Amino acid sequence: MRLVYFQIMVVAIYYFPFFKDFMIEHFFPSYLEYERITWLFFVMPMLSLYLVLILNYYEKKKGVVVIIALIFMVQIFENADSSVYYIQPENKFELSEIAVELADSIAVDADCYTEDKYVKVDDQGEPVRVKTLVISNQSFYDYSDAYNVYYGIRQYSAAIQLGMAYIPDELLEQTADKLEAVGVTQYNYIVAKDLEEYKSYLSKIGAIEIDSSGDYLLYKVVE
Description:
The protein has helices spanning 2-15, 17-27, 31-39, 43-57, 60-80, 97-110, 145-156, 175-181, 196-204, and strands at residues 130-136, 160-166, 189-193, 208-213, 216-220. By secondary structure, the chain is an alpha/beta fold. Mean pLDDT is 78; it is low at 79-90.
């Protein structure tokens, strides 16, 4: 029975949002450390084990009732906490300054975070996702500036949903065709390398330059 009580306590600590917020605020540097230390409890495997133990410990009907009650409790707490996405990056001290500055500019302009750095939710209760396209003449799969900008933004900001468009120097004359192929107008923001070919096309589609950092410009796509 002590094992059952222990597992119920673990579930309550892990899923109960008020306790979770208190623990993060007072005992952990950020939510990331909290999430990781809870992995040590092997929460899900232990839940499965104790559900079986509960069925064996109680009479069959009573065991089913207890399991349904536990599932209901977990579902309530999980739904209450489902919109918790932080802007806190995993390794914020190693991120590209360009990525951080542009991501912050997008977050401010799109107003996609609460004062507590949680991602806002829409009317359907879903987290806000700001679609952003990163355009560069450098490969996103080499350790280049484009790589650092793209993956830096993706890691730094949970609200930004990224796409990429790689247009090497020898294909710059095909910039319009390449960007139309990736559906550039479906994005809310565009982060583009400061090249005349990119700037010329983006001005033609009505994208407005709102910020810059390093060799990259930030555009807002106006519908």
